[in-house]
Amino acid sequence: MKTIARAITPSLLTALSDTPAVMLVGPRQAGKSTLVQGLADGPHPARYLSLDDLRTLDAARRDPIGLIESADGPLIIDEIQRAPELLLPIKAAIDRDLCPGRFILTGSAQVMLLPRVSESLAGRIEVHTLWPFSQAEIEGVSGRIVELLLGESSRPGPTTAPTGTRKSLIERIVRGGFPEALARREDDRREEWLASYLPVIVQRDLREEANIERLAEIPAVLASLASRVRAPLNKTNVSGSVGIPRTSLDRYLTLLEHVFLTHRLPAWHTNRIKQIAKAPKLLISDSALLVHLLRTDRKRLAEDAALLGTVLECFVGMELTKQLSATSTRASLRHMRTASGAEVDFVLEAADGRLAGIEVKASATVRGEDFKHLSTMRDRIGKERFIRGVVLYTGGERLPLGERLEAWPVSTLWS
Questions:
Q1: Given CA atoms 114, 117, 119, 121 in this order, what sign does their dihedral have?
Q2: Which residues contact 302 (CB under 8 A, 6 or more apart)?
Q3: 230 Cβ partners below 8 Å, 6+ apart?
Q4: Which of 151, 192, 309, 400 is placed for a possible disulfide with 387 were both Cys, Cβ 3.0 to 4.6 Å?
Q5: How does pLDDT run across 4-13, given as a tens digit for each residue?
Q6: Residue 59 DSSP SS3
């Protein structure tokens, strides 16, 4: 498999130029180790330590102060969540010397959510998230969808975009973005990798992160969430389908986000649109993992338009999330649904209040009614904030469908 450049690299190097410590978090096997080792071998020379190595882990736990003080230059510590004892010595080292780029830390869990960690490292560390490969990274192009949607470019690219076929889109979905899964060309070998991936997360990372007796329930919770990715989270329905109390579900939901198996998409709200639901959506962090959890395959996706629509929406949501994590544009991604059922799949809002609404359709054609909710949002929000409403569809042309309303090929995400 060819080497794939990561879009987040320039942001990491910028952070290392003026910040003492940079933390790179994200799902296990998303490519964090490969990325930071590449930095160490090239633009940011550093000593590399992995806490997945048992001898290094033992040394870190036995003498965390000694390990940090023995460093005679920049230091990379991979999987820092396995030895949080190192974080206070790192803070002390930074307080003695605020030289930028001293530490690169990686974690397969949200280390900054651990008690006292965020307070102790506040102002000393910058946190970035690395997701599995985006489709733009796989294609070797610069993902610009966030800038295009928010109007920072005068034109959203060419009138047409290379779409391939419905079959090629489904191929992208079932392959996902995990580097090791992508490297496996045969479906059964990729499926074996995915089947092995979840037990490792559950039995290793989650067991280390929390004292939970009934870890066997977590895969069932994740599968139930996978079947509901298109709708706001309904905890009552999920707990009922799995047969667990709401209190247990709340803890499981936190842990699944903590290890990046799910990604929370908050509800967007405004007083200009009434009765907006406040529940978030939960996206599965990789489309191949979603397909695995739904126990489906490319044949069924090709035959079942509703199922493809569900999977495609989650796929697009994570592609937007990946590009947003690597761009310098300050913006947030949310969803909107009203009590009456009106919804906009994704709402991208810039820090200055400009916003774009995005709908996803698993169809090669679009109709005026596909823009109904986007036009309502435009009229209620006002044109000073509403930059554009876009329906991402599987066709190949960019089509104007009304004032500030357009249909874009879904391939705009990677073309």
A1: negative
A2: 166, 167, 170, 308
A3: 281, 309, 310, 313, 314
A4: 151
A5: 999 999 999 9
A6: helix
